[in-house]
């Protein structure tokens, strides 16, 4: 083992009192946008991981940051080759979308910069799945021809979670 690898390991420090708690606007307008543009950050706050290869209780130990809220970049897998329907099945269950996509607006409140979907984890298979307390929010950039994309904001004072 050389001195360089020892130094690299000693340089890996947790930032004291650091809390990663981005707003919806920051998640979409900064982090997701940079990821799509392939502009890396100097520190990996959000890890890329195919979360559907894991059950939700396995994810906390795989996260780069977060305590109660975990953040991952995840490629969208399709259920069928020629379908837009995403595949959200894991080893022991599936993630089911609840409600409709909610728009995320820029801080000026005039432009929709992303969409947020809420999902709940069900243990078992689709027809007989048992709802759990695990919940996830999926963020995505809107496409120009997205039918769920709102034309104008309904409320300019949209709170960030």
Structural account:
It holds the Pfam family NAM. One of its GO terms (biological process) is regulation of DNA-templated transcription. It is found in: Nucleus. One of its GO terms (cellular component) is nucleus. Its main location: nucleus. By secondary structure, this protein is an alpha+beta fold. The chain has a domain of 106 residues: Metal Binding Protein, Guanine Nucleotide Exchange Factor, Chain A (Beta Complex). The protein is 14% helix and 25% strand. It contains 2 helices and 5 strands, in the order ααβββββ. A 3-stranded antiparallel beta sheet has the order 3-4-5. The longest helix is centred in the first third of the chain and has 13 residues. The N and C termini lie far apart (46 Å). The C terminus is likely disordered.
* Major sheet attributes: 3 strands, antiparallel
Fourth CATH level, the homologous superfamily of the domain at 22-75 and 89-140: NAC domain
Secondary-structure element pattern, one letter each: HHEEEEE
Summed up, the helix count is: 2
**Number of β-strand runs:** 5
Shape-level CATH architecture of the domain at 22-75 and 89-140: Beta Complex
The poorly predicted ranges are 152-161
CATH class of the domain at 22-75 and 89-140: Mainly Beta
Strand percent estimate: 15-25%
User: Averaged pLDDT, please?
Assistant: 81
Distance between the termini: 46 Å
Helix proportion of residues, in percent?
10-25%
Report the C-alpha radius of gyration, rounded.
18 Å
Global structural class: alpha+beta
CATH third-tier fold name of the domain at 22-75 and 89-140 = Metal Binding Protein, Guanine Nucleotide Exchange Factor, Chain A
Main location: nucleus
Pfam family, one: NAM
GO molecular function: DNA binding
Organism: Panicum miliaceum
């Amino acid at each position: 083992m050389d001195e360089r690898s020892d130094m690299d390991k000693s340089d890996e420090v947790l930032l004291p009192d650091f809390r990663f708690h981005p707003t919806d606007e920051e998640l979409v307008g900064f982090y997701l946008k940079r990821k799509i543009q392939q502009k890396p950050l100097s520190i990996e706050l959000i890890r890329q991981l195919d979360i559907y290869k894991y059950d939700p209780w396995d994810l906390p130990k795989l996260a780069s940051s977060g305590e109660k809220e975990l953040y991952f970049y995840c490629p969208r897998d399709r259920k069928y080759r020629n379908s837009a329907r995403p595949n959200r099945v894991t080893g022991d269950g599936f993630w089911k979308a609840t409600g409709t996509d909610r728009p995320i607006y820029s801080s000026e409140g005039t432009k929709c910069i992303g969409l947020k979907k809420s999902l709940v984890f069900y243990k078992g298979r689709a027809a007989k799945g048992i709802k759990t307390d695990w919940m996830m929010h999926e963020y995505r950039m809107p496409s120009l021809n997205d039918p769920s994309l709102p034309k104008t904001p309904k409320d300019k004072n949209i709170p960030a979670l």
